[in-house]
Amino acid sequence: MREQVKAVRVELLALDLDGTAAGYDGRVSPRVLAAVHAARRQGVTVVLASGRMLASVRPFWRQFGLGAGYCIAYNGAMVAAMPEARPVLEAHLPSDPARRLAQAAVGAGLVVQAYVGDELWISEDDARAREYIAVNRIPGRLMPPPALWGWPTPPIKLLLQGDDDALAGYRAEAEPVAAAAGLRVVRSHPHYLEILPGGAGKGEALAAVAARLGIPARAVLAIGDAENDLDMIRWAGIGVAMGQALPAVRAAADWVAPPVEADGAAVAIERWAL
Questions:
Q1: Per-residue pLDDT reduced to its tens digit, 5-19
Q2: What domains are defined for the chain?
Q3: Max CA-CA distance within the chain?
Q4: What pTM does this model have?
């Protein structure tokens, strides 16, 4: 963990969803919901910061009753004004490198998901893809290769699914290609690897939202559980890792909360924002 932070009044709360504010089944516990409502009553602005596509974040926005504000989606590749879901910042992958990376992923036996406009394109009808669609509560469009990379506009991001060894092997080969194109590769889930536009990340997006709101980093509380949460945990004045997070994520945090099944996000909000 980082050095102990000084007591400060939290003005902005950034919450990851899956594995943090919501369980891995996509459900928000009553305690987490109550903690968010209590923080808002004390004047704390709440931002949801998720790897999910915007359409999949909107139900949570309504569930938390957040009203007007900003939402971070696609792991920071989009910031949207809510509740109208109007993008104010948006980045896309360059088409040629994205196509090469998608082709290599299919060749490696991975399930490829391309986020094209407001649609989710899927490379094959696979049980993992079906589970993703069910948990995220969004429709998917089956686009077997080569139709998958015939996108009319470049995708916002790619999400690749596979077992740990397959993802690790693909990542070792893909990272030099991604780096040469200025792209980012992050792990967002034990079975998900994501390719993002350069400069896109939850930390960069959270900094942009805070700047729009006139809130300094020292007054920001960010809570997350995965590699894709690292940059916002490091950027925030108070960065909290969930108890089930990887060691590298816990090491980057100022404080480690209990795991998601023990309502760790609520415990963190109660500890730092109330």
A1: 666 899 999 999 999
A2: 12-90+200-272 (3.40.50.1000), 95-196 (3.30.1240.10)
A3: 54
A4: 0.92
